[in-house]
Amino acid sequence: MILRFLILSILLFLPLVAQTPSGQRSPQLAKASSRSVGMSSERLAHIDKMAEEAIVNEEIPGLVALVSRRGKVVYHKAFGTANIESDRKMESNDIFRIASQTKAITSTALMMLWEEGSFKLDDPVSKYIPEFSNPELLDTYNESDGSYTTTPAKNEIRIRHLLTHSSGLGYGLIDRNEGIKAIYREAGIVDAWTTYPILLAHNIKTLATLPLVFEPGERYRYSLGLDVAGYLIEVLSGMPFDLFLKERLFEPLGMDDTYFYLTDDKAHRLVAAHEGKNEQWIKFNGVEGYYDADFPVKGAKTYFSGGAGLSSTALDYATFLQMYLNGGEINGIRFLSRTTIDTIMANQIDMGSDTSYHGLAFSVLDGRGVAKGGLGSEGTFNWGGYFNSQYFADPEEQVIGIILKQTRNTINPDTTGWKFRRLVFQAIDD
Questions:
Q1: Contact 308, 386 (CB under 8 A)
Q2: Is residue 25 very low, low, confident or very high in pLDDT (cuts 50, 70, 90)?
Q3: Neighbour-count burial for 29-43, b at 16+ CB within 10 Å, e otherwise
């Protein structure tokens, strides 16, 4: 009798074993009470105070903040003004230019193709974009007439270099090498976005003919590598970059508010870019000769910058990050293998930080960063954007924090970035 009971018990338990853990589906992000996921609503309320004080102190005109834990959104609020000129109130579903937050999305798309065997990480870029063959290094630059000399590079740019900012490429307007900045400008290189009818292929092929700042693979230096990666995705997939992201990432993830260029019915939700000038906030129109800050809703809408071109919402970006926290899957759809994410998060290059290293898509917190305090657990990954936006995701605590703003040249120093991150972690209460 006892033997029959044991056998029956084992047979009844077997179906339960078969369902775990690979058979489970990670649901889409959904709202839940903070207590249900081990966070304190009273402590999360400190974020309200931070945002309100920052607006009163003219650190920012407004912001949207989102916090999630264990796949549940426990905080998602808007504060202040979305548009100074129209006095429009900020809404939690407003759309922001996420600028360099685009980079992680581009890296993810490229790594999806890597998983499929489309290339090896240490393949030379010239294997797929021949214009990058035989690179040259900038030797001298003459400011008086714009002439320059070069020397042959010893190494070619590898695909890994694009993802780790070690390609030797420059970054146009924000590059600290005045020679490279001038050479790029003279060549008409688009380093972020444009309202002109320029194609990604044309821009990247032109970039390939220009000198590098240093030997590929030599060191970390922020660059246009992810824009090259965007074009590489076009070459490898045979699809326009924007369409690849839409079909392979945005639609299956449910990121319905993420675009290079906004549709007419969503343009009214775009938050205006602002800058501090003469002790007041005004609309930021961009930088003359480089780019127009109204790019998501005007212009030719033909250029798709893998390094800085997307606009999105806090909830959409949180969904993208949650896919990573889930080990590459969400809502039953797998985008990346857990093993690929391990490679993406591995220490690929020293980025000169005393808290983090750079992987293949993000800055990743190391033990030194944990010791600094308030930044998260070891392995927390993060980045930000040109218009003063920040995000982080902590795999150990299963926490995501996103704070979106649209400012340049602030009136008073903006403290919300570092305060927000600290306030999120102090709200953990389990």
A1: yes
A2: confident
A3: beebebeebbbbeeb
